[in-house]
Write a structure and sequence with these properties.
two-stranded antiparallel sheet, 6 strands, Rossmann fold, alpha/beta, about 250 residues, four-stranded mixed sheet
Length: about 250
């Protein structure tokens, strides 16, 4: 009986011991797990510290590639574009019988010939480019009979053609050539210059006047026009006695 009790007590002790060992093992395992969790938590800041290092690499790459953009802009600025055009602008003024400009013209209303051969016209457009004019007014004796008509024609021309931005000058053409009125946009002053011319006298140095007028117009920008009010007969020019030779001389300068 005593032996049985001792055996049962030993069994209880073994069971208690086993249970204690089991609890100890469980506690140890839970402690080790909590320890691993702490290590994981402690590693979290380390991971966050490594993330900026990873993101800094793309930033450094961008800083290396960013200087390339100004270089591209510089290359764009250095590019030179060359354009070849075969179009030649030909200024034209069209007026009716009263000297009033006609505004509703179309492309088919115009015809262009060079050396007698027709040339195509691609387009027409109205131009508001300021005009710089030089009127060559013949004061030679050959126009004695048509003096009044000559003056009226010149005055009407200025009244109908001159726009606010246009300017004109007047040359007196006789044996000598004189700039009677320098460049101005005052139409009334131009009219007074024409009216002030007295009785025509002397010869006609027309080609000399053309040469001097075109030389006078060279510094001016915009459309430059020479208007000749004359019977067209040159008698005493010093430079040339031929219209074509006068133009060739001007073009060669």
């Amino acid at each position: 009986m005593m032996k049985f009790k001792e055996k049962s007590r030993r069994a209880q002790l073994l069971i208690i011991g086993a249970f204690f060992v089991t609890l100890t093992l469980l506690a140890a395992s839970s402690h080790s797990q909590s320890g691993r969790q702490k290590q994981t938590n402690s590693n979290t800041p380390a991971n966050t510290n490594t993330q900026p290092r990873q993101t800094s690499k793309p930033g450094s790459t961008a800083s290396q590639t960013s200087p390339q953009h100004p270089a591209d802009d510089t290359n764009d600025q250095d590019e030179v574009v060359k354009v070849t055009s075969n179009l030649v602008p030909v200024p034209a003024t069209v007026v009716d019988a009263r000297g009033v400009a006609i505004m509703n013209l179309r492309l088919e209303d115009f015809e262009l010939r060079v050396d007698g051969q027709p040339n195509p016209i691609t387009e027409i457009s109205r131009s508001e480019t300021p005009v710089r004019m030089a009127m060559l007014f013949d004061n030679s004796g050959s126009l004695n009979e048509s003096r009044d008509f000559e003056k009226r024609a010149a005055i009407r021309f200025f009244q109908n053609v001159m726009r606010p931005d246009d300017q004109a000058s007047v040359y007196s053409v006789a044996t000598t050539v004189e700039l009677a009125q320098p460049m101005t946009n005052n139409v009334r002053r131009l009219e007074q210059t024409i009216e002030s011319f007295g009785k025509p006298d002397g010869a006609t140095s027309l080609y000399d006047a053309i040469f001097e007028a075109l030389t006078y117009l060279k510094p001016y920008k915009g459309r430059r026009v020479v208007v000749i009010v004359s019977d067209g007969r040159d008698t005493t020019s010093r430079y040339e006695h031929d219209f074509e030779a006068t133009l060739n001389r001007l073009l060669s300068d």
